Amino acid sequence: MPRTSADTVKVGGTAPPTPNPTSRHRWLILAVICIAQLMVTLDATIVNIALPSAQKALAFSNADRQWVITAYALAFGSLLLLGGRIADLFGRKATFLVGLVGFAGASAVGGSADHFVQLVGARAAQGLFGALLAPAALSLLTTTFTDTKERAKAFTAYGAVAGAGAAIGLLLGGLLTEYLDWRWTLYVNLIFAAIAFAGGALLLTRSTRDKTATLDVPGTVLVSAGLFCVVYGFSNAETHGWHSPSAWGLLIAGCVLIAAFTGWQTKATQPLLPLRVLLDRNRGASFIAILISGAGMFGVFLFLTYYLQESLGYSPVKTGLAFMPMVAALMATTILANNLLLPRLGPKSSVPVGMGVSAAGLAWMTTLNLTSSYTAHVLPPLVVTGLGLGLVMAPAMSVATSGVAAEDAGVASAGVNTMQQVGGSISTALLTTLSASAATHYLVGKDPRNPAVLAQAAMQSYHTAFWWAAGFFAAGMVISGLLYRRGVVTQDADTTPVI
Question: Fewer C-beta neighbours within 10 Å, C or N terminus of the chain?
């Protein structure tokens, strides 16, 4: 394989890809994919705002409340790689449509739940079908858009949805809970799924299944169990503390299982996650960037939501609206990064800069206090953080799936979703634990019955979370700056899509 110039990074191959002849309706396909991805992304936050109402209606305890969130994260995070490989082996269209139907069905069951167990079971089922849907959607995008300029536009739209979905979920969850009923935060998925299913059934073409291909069962068991232990371990750390064996024991078990999975992938005839997908330097840097940005984003969404509602007294709807300028900023820099910086200069010009800008925005948030106003104090750092996220998310996702052979598109896409999910799970547990410790430390020697003291303790907890989230992004700036190669990333010659 000939070497490329110093200004161009070759992922593999020697010739540029040709546009996919089966994708005459590719822009409509993009719209379908974005609707499906929006449904999966906003479901991570839309239920959060509805939790107090759901808890009151179904009469479950505060200790049980976390399972409404954790059940979804556990199923989704631990089964993503399996979902990606199923999409590769059995067809992306079929996997996409099955994922949509299953997700809608689980949402209907959850929305009609009359007891806690039914709601949690429905959330777990949502995670299971989301693990089929999310990698299938991203791999469809990867294989549909192979022309460099069109791919940049497609990933701009997808990256904006992926980055803004959580904030949109907060707004939509607030609107539905306040003006309809908490159950509509689940029922609304039926509308998204119906539109995406109709578009997918009409526009997507079915791929030819390789009947000689088999699923890597040992690899599936090892990685699914390993990811389950990691996600569950961090969830237990949040509720039981880091000293609990149910936290550190599961985390150790998860690391051992993932290490065993990695070793098995070097021996398996048809590995679940071919290591060739991970070993490219730019792709590896992108996976790490997605992991770190997924962790850092929770410092914005989770703790700023608490601050706005509990410290400033915002309603759910007003809280959701407060995040919209950040979404606009994110979309603006997503367009800049994917259409100008990435195709002309490569990821090294965008991702490390975005990490640094996001770190600055979160550090700025540590100046917030109980008398801060939205326009003068909350809005500026929120917009700065959004500007940074837009420079990171879409370019990293694009590079992570660029140059991957068509038969590996699903599992590469699953890797992207897995990194984001694991990053969010780690961040939720770590930041919650650290912020709670900060509040406890502040209360030492003070009257915990004094509302003013409690309010200030809450501010200490938020500041701690913002500083740590800023640290995540600062570390991401250094790591991505060191790992990304200079120059433009070009695609493989052998990645002609097979949808």
Answer: N
pLDDT tens-digit series, residues 441-485:
888 888 888 888 889 998 999 999 999 999 999 999 999 999 988
> Is the separation of the CB atoms in 82 and 27 below 8 Å?
no
**CA–CA–CA angle 466, 471, 472 (5° rounding):** 100
If you average pLDDT over residues 266-289, what whole number do you get?
Answer: 82
Distance (Å, rounded) from C-alpha 478 to C-alpha 482? 6
At the top level of CATH, which class does the domain 23-205+272-490 belong to? mainly alpha
pLDDT at 106: 95
395 or 495, greater pLDDT: 395
Encode pLDDT of 41-91 as tens digits. 777 777 777 777 888 888 887 657 777 877 887 788 778 778 877 887 888
